Amino acid sequence: MIDTNKIEELTELDKKHFLHPTSPIGQQQKEGPSFIFTEGNGVFLTDMKGNKLIDGMSSLWNVNIGHGREEISEVAKEQMKKLAFSSCFATFSNEPAIRLAAKLAEIAPGDLSTTFFTSGGSESNDTAYKLARHYWVLKGKPNKQKIISRTKSYHGVSMGATSATGLKPFRDFTTSIAPDFHYVDHFSTKSLRSLIEQEGPETVAAFIAEPVQGAGGVHIASDGYFQEVREICDEYDILFITDEVITGFGRTGTYFGIDHYGVTPDMMCFAKGVTSGYAQLGGVMISETLHKEFKELSTGTLLHGYTYSGHAMACAVALKNIEIIERENLVENAAVMGQEMLQGFQSLQEKHSMIGEVRALGLMGAVEIVKDKQTNERFESPLAPQVVNEAAKRGLILRSVVFDGQDTLVFAPPLIMTKEDITSLISILDETFTSVT
Ligand code: PLP
């Protein structure tokens, strides 16, 4: 039964009282929410009007195990009844946080074996910058404070994370950013080396990169890129941080995105897929070497911590989420279904004149929209937002990326996608492209 009165009531309340994250404020004010979701089940979301859509973005790149998992709600309920939260400040601890930290050490690349917990991705990135800067102070090199990140990168919206974000509109929104942040071309190790030389390696604390850039348009680095990055960081004594907020926990068909490149960062930020969105949790993992040095060199208190660092209920949810990822082989499934999705994109590319480059790594993909395939010329105003709206009408949630002259659709469906689900996704996309040409 569709309750139109309730929809109208909620729409008005939303318009008046709810300032949405990363939202078109003016349009929101006039039209209200496009969907008020009430239910999630597997790869589907259902709204108050009874529309059922494939969640082609795993909501915000995060619902890796799909929606509506009762096992998770059971664990959350049990943990809440026992101990929802107790502070982990100073020397206090709790079992789910300890067990999760140990589990993460088991699955993370190389010798990343110690975790600082946060409530999300932005906090994780800010933590990494602060730990990196503090590390160099402890090492007696206080001038090593600069953080280098890449163009087209997205690292979140807290002050540090915004400052590191290579997508300029996010930085411009704050009008001023934190000092000592610098950017290099997102694909070029040459530009990383020359910036380090130009700034002076003795002033650079760390380089941060997403193994696959997400919000910037799903850009996949070439083979060898991160191996070279690792070498450059070692050569100049600079910490290498990976932002695995999207790419962690199976998204790209390996446990972590950096696993594709076989190198180990000094720090690794994660969030999103660690709980598949069932609770708010993130963290930074640091290498054994770094942890040892911190312990040896620190004389006082680590003056950095969030109220919810090591939240018992969130950590219990994360443990169950990881158990499900492993039990259902979702990392492998992402690799296999990612190939299916890419082949689907390629078949649409042959059929539709406005589909340019297509790419995917695991279940993280992109489709470029072009006016002319040969020259790669773009439409005067991007079509991707219209495609996203039309796809939603047909039952598929996608996102558009129009930064830096891009006209791109991005995809990140849940890791539980089946072959049939991929076929539905591709067929809705096909109909959508037919409708906009
Ligand atoms: N890093 C990356 C790569 C992200 O994609 C995001 C969010 O989309 C963040 C950091 C920020 O995470 P949060 O929104 O949880 O603060």
Protein model, in words:
Strand 1 and strand 2 form a beta hairpin. The protein has two domains: 140 residues, Aspartate Aminotransferase, domain 1 (Alpha-Beta Complex), CATH 3.90.1150; 258 residues, 3-Layer(aba) Sandwich (Aspartate Aminotransferase, domain 2), CATH 3.40.640. The chain is an alpha/beta fold. The strands form four sheets. Strands 4-12-11-10-7-5-6 form a seven-stranded mixed beta sheet, with helices on both faces. Helix 4 packs antiparallel against helix 12 and helix 5 packs parallel to helix 12. The protein is globular. The protein is 41% helix and 16% strand. It has 15 helices and 16 strands. Pyridoxal-5'-phosphate binds next to helix 6.
List key phrases describing it.
alpha/beta; 15 helices; Aspartate Aminotransferase, domain 1; 437 residues; pyridoxal phosphate; transferase; Aspartate Aminotransferase, domain 2; seven-stranded mixed beta sheet; 16% strand; transaminase activity; 2 domains; binds pyridoxal-5'-phosphate
Brief synopsis:
Belongs to the class-III pyridoxal-phosphate-dependent aminotransferase family. Helix content is 41%, strand content 16%.
